[in-house]
């Protein structure tokens, strides 16, 4: 089987939502996809702005039936870009002064990711309802059980 890397430049004007990822993997490609370089308008200020000035270094791994398994991003380490992004998004800079101090007093390039454990189990087992794979089920009023 020949693997093909598909590269699609998608310029979207609507915010990306879970349903969009499900549509891409379920209807368009019918296989897992990696969505990356999101428009900076729809992502948090701390994500690193790419050289094009319009996108950020972020990604999601989305698979059919289970949704987003992994998401991650590179964090912005450039003080001037952090300040610019905070202003662009209309965030009160005083609320994030502690975050700016972390960067101001020394930082390195860094990234992070998260794995949606339940969705990985859902994908691996082929089950269809995420409620069936939650290791510690909870229900309203029964959170302590």
Structure notes:
- One of its GO terms (biological process) is tRNA aminoacylation for protein translation.
- Keywords: Aminoacyl-tRNA synthetase, ATP-binding, Ligase, Nucleotide-binding, Protein biosynthesis.
- It comes from Vitis vinifera.
- Strand 2 (55-63) and strand 3 (67-75) form a beta hairpin.
- This protein has one domain (18-131): BirA Bifunctional Protein, domain 2, CATH 3.30.930.10.
- The chain contains four helices and four strands.
- It has a four-stranded antiparallel beta sheet.
- The N and C termini lie far apart (48 Å).
- 26% of the residues lie in helices and 21% in strands.
- The model is unreliable at 1-6 (pLDDT under 50).
- The chain is α+β, with helices and mostly antiparallel strands and 145 residues long.
Keyword list:
single chain, 145 residues, BirA Bifunctional Protein, domain 2, four-stranded antiparallel β-sheet, 4 helices, 4 strands, 21% strand, disordered N terminus
Topology:
Elements: H1 18-28, E1 33-39, E2 55-63, E3 67-75, H2 79-88, H3 97-104, E4 110-115, H4 117-125
GO molecular function: aminoacyl-tRNA ligase activity; ATP binding
Organism: Vitis vinifera (Grape)
InterPro entries: Aa-tRNA-synt_II, aa-tRNA-synth_II/BPL/LPL
């Amino acid at each position: 089987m020949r693997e093909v890397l598909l590269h699609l430049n998608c310029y979207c004007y609507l915010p990306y939502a879970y349903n969009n990822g499900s549509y891409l993997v379920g209807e368009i490609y019918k296989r897992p996809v990696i969505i990356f370089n999101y428009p900076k308008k729809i992502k948090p200020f701390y994500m690193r702005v790419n050289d094009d000035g319009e996108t950020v270094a972020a990604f999601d791994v989305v698979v059919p039936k289970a949704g987003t398994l992994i998401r991650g991003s590179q964090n912005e380490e450039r003080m001037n870009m952090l300040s610019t992004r905070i202003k662009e998004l209309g965030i009160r800079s005083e609320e994030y002064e502690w975050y700016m101090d972390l960067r101001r007093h020394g930082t390195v390039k860094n990234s992070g990711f998260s794995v949606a454990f339940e969705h990985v189990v859902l994908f691996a087992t082929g089950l269809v309802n995420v409620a069936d794979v939650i290791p510690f089920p909870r229900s309203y009023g029964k959170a302590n059980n």
